Amino acid sequence: MDSGNLIWIFVAFVAYMAMMIAIGARYMKRTSNSADYFLGGRGLSGWVAALSAQASDMSGWLLMGLPGAVYAFGTGQVWIAIGLFIGTVCNWIFISGRLRRYTIRANNSLTLPEFFENRFHDKKHVLLCISSIVIVVFFLVYTASAFAAGGKLFYAITGIDYHIALTVGAVVILLYTFMGGFMAVCVTDFIQGTLMLVALLAVPLVAYGIVNGNGGVTQLLEASGVAGGSASYLSLWENGGVPYRPIDIISQLAWAFGYCGMPHILTRFMAVKSQKELNKSKSIAIIWVALSLAFACIIGVVGRAYLYPEILGTAGADSAENVFINMITHLFTQQYALPFVAGIFLCGILAAIMSTADSQLLVTASAVSEDIYKGIIRKDADDKKILRLSRVTVVVVAVIAYLIAWNPDSSIMGLVSNAWAGFGSAFGPLVLLSLFWKRTNMAGAVAGIVSGGLTVIIWDYLPLAVTSEGVRTNLGAATGIYSLLIGFFVSLLFIVVVSLCTKAPDESIIQEFNDVADKSVEL
């Protein structure tokens, strides 16, 4: 890319990042206590809640990982997107309203671990401690994936060393999260969610018009050497020219189970200011995610045709995960001389990355300062001390995630997959049953979190299987089964069995459950 185009792209990036930092500074003045810092005083509007939840959900995976997977292997990769859409719809329809009511009834809980503790009247803080540890462990991996995506974005555009690019992105995200807390994160996420959607819709539509004039998508796909030919590439039932096994499709659809266990998404439900605003959020969020996932997959297909004869992922070429980046730079610096527009659309990818990393930093900080420090170590700690500790925690977590992301060869898709499985398995079944099954008790809750989290770690990280070549590998790689599919049902089984085998919840817990279930009761 020539220096003139690069300067305009830098101008767009600097303007965008300056705006994010300014928002953080603005909300720093309005953040006086931990309730403001972690939940914004339960004052989110419907639009901000919807776009903030979905922007923080999708991350760089939406604009890099998913289009890259479709680009490399074909439309068979859309099963993950279908699973995520199903999960999003179910989360908003069945979980959001009830969780908001229950967190208010359960002593106005500010965080997911605090909700678990209050829901089961855990006086010994066992649930608070275990769930906070799970959040810290898996969010370190998740935040690292966002930082890695930011580094790859800057490197792909500018050629700046990955590690320098990683540092710049991490510092900007850290600054506005450190200063403004939850409201700064949500307002920036709203802007980022809007920008992401505009970029997702505009770029593939413009590229498709050009592709049609150059021979059409099917012909160009065939010429680009897709595995199995264009018919296989465009089939939902094949992956990289190889027919899908039923378990492969089920494993990709299983991503849906992760939604009900994602702390950074669930906190948005808790923070909406009214049921009326929450109902508005549902429609907005579902439309946003349907359009975003569909067009992210279209980017992979159209990008394969549009960028030909360049084939990403081959020797000396960019990774397939850079397909959207390359489409934008080709379209608006080579096809059309609009480098500033290219910069704005590239900020859409940066937005996807930042909107997830900031939420993860904040939830991890809340787990350490609000749940572990105030809930267990210093119950009499005042709000100012907790606020200071929260900001220190944000810095520490960012530094550790930065170190995890230091390897430029780390896969965005792989990091997100592991963290998603961890949260979905450890928290998903417990959130569901704590909201809808009154017989769930504290023993079952502990068993569910521990069994779900450990199952994912064992399945994904321990070399318990041996390949036909005699190489030791993990069970996920050996079977092709996503760890979330196993972990979710292991956790669900443990919660049900242990709850039924131990003492039933006392009457006060049952009464709280009934109050939440009875919508005539004002909360």
How is this structure best described in words?
Helix 3 (46-73) runs antiparallel to helix 11. Strand 3 and strand 4 form a beta hairpin. The chain is 76% helix and 2% strand. The termini are far apart. It has 523 residues and is mostly helical. The protein has helices at residues 3-28, 34-39, 46-73, 78-105, 112-119, 126-158, 162-213, 217-223, 229-233, 246-253, 263-271, 275-307, 323-335, 339-377, 383-404, 412-436, 442-461, 475-479, 483-501, 507-517; strands at 238-239, 242-243, 465-466, 472-473.
Order of helices and strands: HHHHHHHHHEEHHHHHHHHEEHHH
How many separate helices? 20
In angstroms, what separates the terminal alpha carbons? 57 Å
Low-pLDDT runs: none
Shape: globular
For the report, how would you describe the main beta sheet? 2 strands, antiparallel
Beta-strand percent range: under 5%
Strand order of the largest sheet: 1-2
Give the overall pLDDT as a whole number. 84
Structural class: mainly alpha
Portion of residues in helices?
Answer: over 70%
Number of strands: 4
Computed over alpha carbons, the radius of gyration is: 23 Å
